[in-house]
Design brief:
Layout lengths: L3 H4 L4 H14 L5 H12 L5 H13 L5 H25 L3 E2 L2 E2 L1 H4 L2 H20 L4 H23 L8 H26 L4 H28 L2 H4 L5 H4 L5 H7 L5 H6 L7 H11 L2 H19 L7 H15 L3
Antiparallel strand pairs: 1-2
Family: Belongs to the FPP/GGPP synthase family.
GO molecular function: metal ion binding; prenyltransferase activity
GO biological process, one term: quinone biosynthetic process
Length: 321
């Protein structure tokens, strides 16, 4: 079994340094903002995004530069800021098994904390003094907004296609991973082809990650998810397992049309999805994107860091075993 613990062993000290730096970087003057930010980082998380940045740095450079480390930290801050806003929009009470920022403080503080983290990440990004990286990462923040708007206006919309779902998943998840992978390569002064390969790696990895997350929303339990199963469905965020299940059965349509308003609707929907091939087809879709990620690395120089990047693809699939 591939786990996050053994995958990241080549950069365990680098990740410890990252954790130490994160709370220092968001050192807000106001104690409430600082407490909100500290609450987020103490909640943990697997740090997959910054870990990938550090591994690409090792794969493309003789050593990890200070700029690479800062990019890894910026990536995690942007990701965390997006989670704060996501939780407010979706009205989630818990994240990673702990209370969300708006549950601990209030919605206003949560929105401001998210805005503050985005602002801090932008400031540190500008101080990298690399225009290409600034342009690449800045686009991610607009992608987040577009992804949230798209999701917001398509709640409970069963007419969406799998292609629409993939496009939304790119904006919400894969964009940041793709851009940070490309940026890590840019900071190593690699050629355009290598930069593009790492972008494709991040894009496909991010899409696979989101699809697996959506499968776990159906088959996971609250202890591992850190939130109740079916939370995405309840919020109207229709995902790959449901779209594939809708192609097989009409039983789900009335549940979605009434927006899962009855107390037992979510559990009934999960039961129906499990009886179809929806989950298997979603797994197959995730596997396709994992293969896309691995293909993007085919022509890159083999190293321990590159092998670790490939292992991450399998780790993502192993999350549902």
């Amino acid at each position: 079994m591939v786990t996050s613990t053994n995958i990241f062993s080549p950069i365990v000290e680098d990740l410890a340094l990252l954790d130490k730096n994160l709370t220092m970087m968001v050192g807000a003057r106001h104690p409430i903002l600082y407490a909100a930010a500290e609450h987020l980082f103490q909640a943990g998380g697997k740090r997959i995004r910054p870990a990938i940045v550090l591994l690409i740095a090792k794969a493309t450079s003789t050593n990890i530069k200070a700029e690479h480390r800062r990019l890894a930290e910026i990536t995690e801050i942007i990701h965390t800021a997006s989670l704060v806003h996501d939780d407010v929009i979706d009205e989630c009470q818990t994240r990673r098994g702990v209370l969300t920022v708006h549950s601990t403080f209030n919605t206003k503080i949560a929105v401001l904390a998210g805005d503050f983290l985005f602002a801090q990440s932008s400031w540190y990004l500008a101080n990298l003094n690399n225009l290409e990286v600034v342009k690449t990462i800045s686009k991610v923040i607009t992608d987040f907004a577009e992804g949230e708007v798209r999701q917001g206006v398509t709640h409970f919309d069963t007419t969406l296609s799998i292609d629409d779902y993939i496009e939304k998943s790119f904006y919400k998840t894969a964009s940041l991973i793709a851009a940070s992978c490309q940026s890590a390569s840019i900071l190593s002064n690699t050629n355009i082809t290598t930069q593009h390969n790492f972008y494709l790696y991040g894009k496909h990895l991010g899409l696979a990650f989101q699809i697996i997350d959506d499968i776990l929303d159906i088959i996971g339990c609250q202890d591992t998810l850190g939130k109740p199963p079916g939370s995405d469905l309840k919020n109207g965020n229709l995902t790959a397992p449901l779209f594939f299940a809708l192609q097989e059965t009409n039983e789900l349509h009335p549940l979605v049309e009434r927006e899962f308003q009855n107390k037992e609707d979510i559990q009934q929907a999960i039961k129906i999805i499990k009886q179809t091939n929806g989950i298997e087809k979603a797994k197959d879709l995730a596997k396709e994107h994992v293969q896309g990620a691995l293909k993007a690395l085919e022509n890159e120089n083999t190293s321990e860091a590159l092998l670790t990047l490939k292992l991450i693809s399998y780790y993502i699939l192993n999350r549902i075993k």
